[in-house]
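Re: the 255-residue chain
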Amino acid sequence: MLSLLSPAKTLDYETPATTDTLTTPDFLDHSAELVEILKKKSVKQIGKLMGISEKLATLNHERFQTWQNPMPPAEVKQAVLAFKGDVYLGLEAGTLTAKQLGYAQDHLRILSGLYGMLRPLDAMLPYRLEMGTKLKTSRGSDLYSFWGASLTAAINEQLAATKSKYLINLASNEYFQSVRAGEIEANIISPTFKDLSNGKYKIISFFAKKARGMMAAYLIRGRVKTLKKLTAFDSDGYRYDEESSTESKPVFLRG
């Protein structure tokens, strides 16, 4: 199985990494192309483009101005350890062993607006660039047109390399739209996580995001290869609900 995650807006470059292993992202030249476009934009233009405050726009304007390829080793961190949003609270990458991180390197990918797609141990400089950003490039009017073909080809290549029959979509809709699903050479499985609220099972954003991370950790720790083992996921009180599930959309309930 190959799993996909979204990145996170929250970053942590202060906590020491649990491994010294660093790999180079596959699409750095593409990233550099995007940075060259973004470097020419003012703080105000960055803020408007991303819909962020002046303070955040200033920070990210500075990041684009100083971004380098190759990246300075002292300023990077492994992607799976640098992201600290809700998904990564569930993943708890800092608790994974060296062998588990090595397995994740082959079986987990993180989609990214700036880097396209990252392996867990790929070196990454701090950034913010959502996949849904309507940034005009030579390939089209947004990042979906910029990345789509490249990401889809890379996913298919990794599916073949790992002999994976399933692509486990644990990414948000915003990020999974960057993948051309109709061209994926595997069965796409998109788990759904629901919590009991006011007598009904609902997708509650924070809990669902955290559960995606927990599912990714479960697949890594157990080296899961079958749907039967995937549906045995029971972390933090979730349980598989066969009645509301389909093969491509297994549903997990809690409460």
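The mean pLDDT is 97.
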